[in-house]
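--- STAGE predict ---
source: upstream dedup step, 1 unique chain passed
mode: sequence only
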Amino acid sequence: MNYFSQLSGLMIEVMLPLGLLVAAGAFWPRIFADAQPDVLRTQLNRVVMYVFYPCILFAVASSTPITLNLLSVPLLVGIGTLCSGALLYLLFYRSPVGRNLSDPTRAVLVIGGMWGNTFNVGAPVLIFFFGRDATRYAIYNDVVMTMPLVWSLGVWIATRLGSHENNVSYPSVWRVLVTMPPLWAFALGFATQQLELTYAPLVTAAQFVGQATIPVVMFVLGLTIPWRNLAPRTEILAAALVKLLIMPVMVWLAAGMLFGTRGEAQYASVAEAATPAMMTTLLLADRFKLDSATAGLIVGWSTLLFWLTLPVIMALGMIR
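--- STAGE serialize ---
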C-alpha cells in the first residue's frame, strides 16, 4: 500500500470517527440548552473509569502473553517521555520561551508535553496499522509506563515545579493509584492469563463492554476542549511540537539504538509517542492548582494538530 492510499484509509477509518465524536461533544451543549457540560463530563468519566475501561483492560490482560517485545513499547515510550520532559524543562524553565510564564503554567506545559492520549487516540491508530490485537501495545503502555509515571513524576512536577503550596495535605498518590479500578481489572486479567485460567466467553463479554471506552472518552474530550479560547500562543504550540513531532523522533531513534532492526512493536511505540496530550493533564491541573486554562489549551491544540502531524510521521517512514 502506498503512502497516499494508507493516508486515505487512516483519515476515513480513524480520523473521521474520532473527529465526529469530538465534534459531537463540542456541539452538544450548544444543541441541547439543558445540558450541563461539567456534570455530564464528570458522570461520563466515572462510567469510563469504573465500567468501560476496566473491562477492556481485563480482556486484553487475560488474553495476552507477556513477551519482551511487548514490554519494549512502554520502555521506548517511557524513554521518549523522560527525554521530552527534560527538553520541556529546559525550554520553559531555562530559556526565554518561559521567561514570563508562571510556575503553574510552566508545570502544566511540561506535563502536557510528556504524556499522550495513548489509549483513546493511540489504540485506533494502532489497530489501523497493525490489526485489532495491537490494542495490547496501548494497554501495556498505559499500565506499565503511563500510570506509574504520571502519578509519581507527574505529581512531583505538579507540586514541586508548579504549585509550590506549603502546608497543603494531598491524598497519597500511591493510595489513589492502587484504588483505581482499571489497575485491579488489569491485575485480575494478568493473573488469569498467567495461571492459564482465561475463559474465552468472559473475555469476549468484557471486550463487548469495553468497546464503549474510546467513543465515550472522545465525546468527553469534545466537551472539555475550550473551543472559544483556542487562541494560538507560542508556549502552547512549542509544547505541542515537542509532544507530536520531537518525542516520536526520540522514540524512533531509541528503538534503532536498542533493537537495531525495528519491528511491529517498535513502530507501535512511535505511534504511541505521537499521540496528543492526555486528558489527565486537566485532572492534575485541577487537583494541584496549576493553570487549568493552559491545560485545556495544550490538550485542545495538540489534539487538533495531531491530525496534521501524524501524516508527517508516516511520510518520514517512522510508522509502517
